[in-house]
Amino acid sequence: MPRPYQPSLLRLLHGATAVLVVGAWLSGFLVYNRFDGRWGRLPLALSGDWIDLHGTVAVMLWPLVLMFALYAATLGRARLRQPANLIALLALALAVGSGKLMQEDWLRDGELGHGVYAVHLVAWLMLAGAVLSHVGSVLARGGRPLAASMASLEVRPRDQPRDWWGQIRRHFSR
Ligand code: HEM
């Protein structure tokens, strides 16, 4: 079987999104732990403005998710037929979208009853499940070689950054 290869533009968008998603997920947990804790709390003595940090990661994630989603819906459409890929993207969109509708001061002011915040908490949980099942599906379909193909730094000759524009144009002229 040929070694799996992922287009470099996909790897760039997917990799940057994945790193920021992990940062947003963890900092989101720290915000919950400090300002909410209704369903339990870890005894962490971490000082820091986690709401600010979480918001900064979210601001970076937002345009990236938009570009990644556009890529996935167009050039990556065949991969989106995998339910686990689609669910990971939908969970991410729900998390980012509901986060965007929240206001920074709600949790600082103890306002925990907003519906959008409830949706954001559910999205946080869904994202964890969706990413785990996505990674599980990748491993089940292609094992370590498929998983590693997403982190590989190999760039084939016709897949250099200067070829990205041509790849996009060819997709839309098909
Ligand atoms: C952290 C959040 C993650 C999200 C939101 C996410 C989302 C996605 C999406 C939407 C696709 C389809 C892209 C397209 O249509 O072109 C995809 C593909 C892929 N992802 Fe992820 N992913 C994440 C993490 C990971 C991780 C940690 C791995 C490593 C195991 C991984 C491995 C892959 C692979 C190998 C593919 C392409 C393979 C295929 O399904 O054909 N992803 N991912």
Write down the Rg.
18 Å
* Fraction in helix: over 70%
Shape annotation: elongated
Q: What does the main sheet amount to? A: none
Number of helices: 7
String of helices and strands: HHHHHHH
For the termini, the CA-CA separation is: 28 Å
Count of spatially separate domains: 1
Count of β-strands: 0
How would you classify the helix and strand content by structural class? mainly alpha
- What bound compounds does this protein have? protoporphyrin IX containing FE
Strand content: under 5%
Low-confidence stretches: none
Could you explain how this protein is built, in words?
This protein is mainly α and 174 residues long. The protein has one domain (8-173). It has 7 helices and no strands. It has helices spanning 8-35, 50-73, 77-80, 83-100, 105-108, 115-151, 164-173. Helix 1 (8-35) runs antiparallel to helix 2 (50-73) and helix 4 (83-100) crosses helix 6 (115-151). The longest helix has 37 residues, at 115-151. The radius of gyration is 18 Å and the shape is elongated. The model has no long low-confidence stretch (mean pLDDT 96). Bound molecules: protoporphyrin IX containing FE. The site of protoporphyrin IX containing FE (HEM) has 23 residues, from helix 1, helix 3, helix 4 and helix 6.
